[in-house]
Each structure stands twice: as structure tokens, then as C-alpha cells.
Amino acid sequence: MAVVPQSNIRNFSIIAHIDHGKSTLADRIIQECGAISDREMSAQVMDTMDIEKERGITIKAQSVRLDYIKDGVPYVLNLIDTPGHVDFSYEVSRSLASSEGALLIVDAVQGVEAQTIANVYIAIENNLELLPVVNKIDLLAADPDRVLSELENAIGIDATEHCLVSAKTGQGVKELIDAIVEKIPAPKGDENAPAKALIYDSWFDNYLGALALVRVFEGSLKKGQLAKVMGTKREHQILDLMYPHPISPKKTDEIRTGEIGIVVMGLKNVDALMVGDTITDAKNPTTNAIEGFTPAKPFVFAGIYPIETDRFEDLRDALNKLKLNDSSLSFEPESSMALGSGFRTGFLGMLHMEVVKERLEREFNLELIATAPTVVYEVLQTNGEKIEIQNPSELPEPQKIDTIFEPYVKATILTPQEFVGNLIKLLSERRGIQIKMDYLNETRVLLEYDIPMNEIVMDFYDKLKSTTKGYASFDYEPIGFRPGKLVKLDIRVAGDIVDALSIIVPEEKARNRGLAFVNQLKELIPRQLFEVAIQASVGNTVIARSNVKSVGKNVTAKCYGGDITRKRKLLEKQKAGKKRMKSIGKVDVPQEAFMAILKLDS
pTM for the complete prediction? Predict the structure, then answer.
């Protein structure tokens, strides 16, 4: 490959709300630059997972190096396609840390959405050059002028210099690439300084081992060089270097200042290449690592158990392999009386949980059951000690608890004006605290609320969509812990507490939740030969109860006529038998019962 000077390199990310056309636009840019022939082209060419293509969402940020010639001058464009969903915003932050500019894609019909605003703030924090791009201008309902004025009103960025494109038809894409070359600054950095490269992604390849995708900020990395990973303080030889490409990576002998490339060191696991770490030259190391990188922190925890209990080790292997490609996943073994051995797994949000469970089932052929998701609580005990709790069963005895602190998030919601009343009602039911309410124009309203994380991990997103007929968009960011009046709600089936069904709820909602839960379980637990009591309790106090009636066998069928005492004798015998059976009988709680909590209406 011809060496392109540093001043002719452009590193940029594509950011947008989910479904505003990032991946389609990336496809068009790749095609326009001639990186892929029309024969090799496919939709969402940068999305590598089946789930991404099926659901039409990007889960993992992907990079590609493109060659482009403008006015006879060769340029290198390093494009990073980022996910749009709130759960994967950490992918966006690390991609932006490796770029000098960002294309802010906004749908010409939908306009500015919650995730658009969140991503813009991350870009502004990283001092990136923002280039507003209005996509889908080929649609009949497109209104670019309204969208551009929304951009200026909602976010306060100057949208006078913008690009109008249709990623579907390719209209305006060449002009957009020219604008990228003109407006996005070239990378800065001293080519003669010691090597300093940021790892902004890592994954596992069955043939090459752990791979690091890096952005070189100073100096260069060369094939055969002894490199040092500053976080682990370990030294490894660089076996190979490659530039990312949509079809297959292109080999190179050197990755220079301002460039993006893949480093192969023949490592057996990804733990040696943590995202956010710095690679430098082992013989002439840089003095300071690259700062400002925060690792992804799980917000939602759920138990994942194999339905066949003997496949516990298979599940452990599957989670370990998945963690190689998804560094944000965390898990530790746990056991449950009802479900056997499994793992307490940490996720970034509900979509991340769905995707991980689906990938485990598909890619590793496992049948799994997931418990209802919970969040992390902090508990101040009466002895002054503070502990963190991921599982309701870890909560200490009520007499040992001084205060329970629950995590809060700042929720940003954009909605058409007609649904504001319904939304405010929903948010107040979920214990939300209104921070601000802005009318962006005659039709759209921006709401900002502080809301407990516990209230949004269950079914909040579904309720929000049904309340607003699918028009509202939602984004959140954590803002720390606040004290709350919370209690643990236990479910007892035939007198035994089912630990996997325990949940932490606000004290004032405990009775209603208990009643709703018990009534749902009554429908789900199959009838036994004896009557089964289902109870909801807080501590030792039962606050709700329901019975699953027994399946009766007609023992008096053989009596025709005769004295009533004959029938009574048979019924008494049956009653005694059922009583004995109840003490030795075990009630199997079906799989649906563990997700019943998701469908509770408070």
C-alpha cells in the first residue's frame, strides 16, 4: 500500500439514534470509495453477527480503512460504525476517543431523538468536529429544514454547514465524502516520539489468538517489534499488523501516527489486551499512558441457568468464549434451590441481556432460563459497614439494615406533544422526579427525569412505546445512588421460599406487587394432587396468598347407592392421603414463572 502523509488521514465515527441509517450509510461510503466490488457487496456489510442483520441493529462497533482520491490527491479514511442503542453507548465513547470527527446522522422524518442528544454530548466531550448529516431525504415525508432547526434548538450546534443524503439511493454520498476530507481535521501527533497506541477494541480469532484494534497517537508500531502493554506491564512481540477491511484485513509492516490497525501478538486470551489500555515500544517506552478511558460497567444483573443441570460446564465455557468478543460481560457462579447451578451475569441493559442470551442459545446450542433482571444496591448496615448487593437473596436480615441505597439514572425522553400527559403519569408511577420539560417546537417535547434504575429495567421501555404509539425515544445515564424505602419481597410455594423469585420493591408498592405476583403464579404453577399455597411475604409477614386447587380423583365413582357413610369413608381416606403427600411432595415451578415478574403491573 502506498504511504499516505499524516495530513491526508481522516479518522471519523458515525453516530446516530438507533435506526437512523448508520450502517446503510457506511455501506454507501465503502462502495463509493471502491473498497468492495458490487458483486461482494451485501446489506450491512460491516455488521458481522447474524443477530445484527436479523434485528437490523449494530451491536459491535466496526472499523474499516478506505482509500479515496480527491482532485488527484490520495486520502485515507478510517471509518468507525457505532451502535445506536443506549445499552451499547460505551462502544460509542471508545470509538469517539479514537476519532477527530463524527458524522451526526439524523433521520429526515423522525428528527432529533434521545440517543442523538446523548451521542452528541460524548462527541463534544472528546472535542470532535461534528458534521450534521440529514439522511433519508428520498422519503415523501422528509422535512430536512425542520430537522436542522431541531438540531440547533435541542442541541445548540450550528447546522448551517450540513449534508443532505439518502443512504438507500446513494444521493449526496460523494459530496458527503468530499465534506469529510475538507472539514474533519487530520490527526495530530509526533511521528518521531516513542510509540503510543490506544486499544479501542479487542476480540478473539480462532487462528490468530487475541487481536487488538488500535489507534496510533504517536510514533509507530512495526512488525517484529517488542511491544509493551502498559496496563499489564507485559511485553509481547508483534507477529503481524493489518489494516481493517470489510471483507478481509490487509497486511502491512507498519502502522504509523494517526492510523488505525489490527495488532497480532499470538496471545491466548483477551484479558492481556484490555480495551482502553496503551501499547508502547518495550525498548523505548512512552512515559504516560493515554487517559480518559472508563471500562464498561454492568447495570443489570440476572441469573442464567442451564435447563439441563448437567450442562453447567458447557455454559461456563460458552460464557468464557463470549467474553472474548464482548469485554463488557461479567459473570460469577451462583446456585439456587429452585434452579440448581448457574451464573450471576452482569449486562449493560435489557437489550444486551437479550442479545447475550440469544447468542448463548444459538452459537453454543444451550437451553437456558434467565431470572428476572435486578440492579446493584448499596446497603448501609447497622454496624456501619457498606456492602454492594447484586442479588435480592444477598440482602441482610431487616434488623441489620440501616439504609438501602438504590441507583438512579437521568432519563431523557423526546415525545410528540399529544402524549405528554400519559408519559408524565407513567413516570410518576415509576417514582420519577421531573427535572425539566422543554418544548422544542410546536409538536415535540423534551422531558428530563431522575428515575430509579430498578423501575426501568423491567418493562418500562415497552410501556413507554405503547403509551406513545412508538413515537417517543428514550435514553439514560447513571447518576449515582440515593436512599430509598425498600423491602425484599419473598415468594413461598408450598411453604418453601423460592430464592430465584425474590425481588426488591419500594415499601409502599410491596402489597400490590405481592398480590399481582401471587395471582400470576397461580395461573402458571400446574395443579398437583394436593392443594398448593402460594404466598408473598416481607420478612416473616405474609402479605398476599393464593391457592392452586388440587387435581381431584373421583374416589366415590365405584359407589352406586348404599349408605352415605361409605362415600364419606372413601373421601376421608383420600383427604388423609393428600395431607401425607403434601409433606413429601415437591412442587416444580415452571420456567415461565421466573419471567412473570416482568409482566407485573404495579
Answer: 0.67
